[in-house]
Amino acid sequence: MNPSDGSEDRPSFDPESARRIMREYGSWAPVYDWFARATASIGGVRAGCVAALDLEPGDTAVDFGCGPGVNLPALREAVGPDGRVVGVDVTEPMLERARGLIERRGWTNVSVVRGDATRPPISRADGVLATFVTSLFPDPYAVVCRWCELADAVVVANFAPHGGRVANAALRAFARMNARLFDFEVGDPLCQLAERTEACRRALADCLDRVVSRDYVFGTIRLHAGYS
Questions:
Q1: Which terminus has fewer CB within 10 Å in the chain: N or C?
Q2: Does 1 fall in a domain?
């Protein structure tokens, strides 16, 4: 995996969006770190995402929006000691926690880098993963299309209102509580989540050969996996 030096074909960089994510996401990094680790195995979402990448020992995997590193252990296990895992996040407080995890585990083949997922600081990988990230982007279609140029397998998991009334009500409450992070406009936040999740699916379908979708946690989380 090498630094990407081309910029002409990247999605438009939105500095205000990046500042919003750094401000809102970074402010609750300590709480998110605890919450994400405490709920990492609930519903089997993260394990399902890593399994969907179908990684092999020696592969290189990239985790966009890696946060405090919740996906790193499973990705590292999938690629083995001879593979490589790179976490990318724009928020320094999150990366500090991911670096602490890497140091505590003594991993020499796992690293993190500060970067914007809309302008990937890489040129090639075997698998790309993004969990609960693309719901933050104004134009997730363009971002996921760019990721499809980097790897033969791209897996994204997002919030989606495909559950029952109670599940959707809980998701709506969560979304409104984090309205500034998601940059919701006037209207139903569930509609925006649904639109951005569907945009990811369309990007995978338009750029790769095959797309597989699965629902988790009573239909509030949808996984899309694209393969070339």
A1: C
A2: no
Could you report the per-residue pLDDT of 104-143, keeping only the tens digit for each? 999 999 999 999 999 999 999 999 999 988 888 889 999 9
Provide the token pair at 137: 């982007």
Residues of the chain short of pLDDT 50, as ranges, are: 1-13, 26-29, 31-35, 37-40
pLDDT of res. 81: 95
Whether 101 contacts 85, CB under 8 Å: no
Q: How many Cβ atoms from other residues are within 10 Å of residue 50's Cβ?
A: 24
183, part of any domain: yes
Q: What is the pLDDT of residue 179?
A: 54
Strand-pair category, 153-159 with 221-227: antiparallel
Domain count, the chain: 1
CATH of the domain at 176: 3.40.50.150
Amino acid letter at 190? Answer: L
What residues contact 79, with CB distance under 8 A and at least 6 apart? 55, 56, 57, 58, 59, 60, 61, 85, 109
Is 6 inside any structural domain?
Answer: no
Range(s) of the domain holding residue 222: 15-227
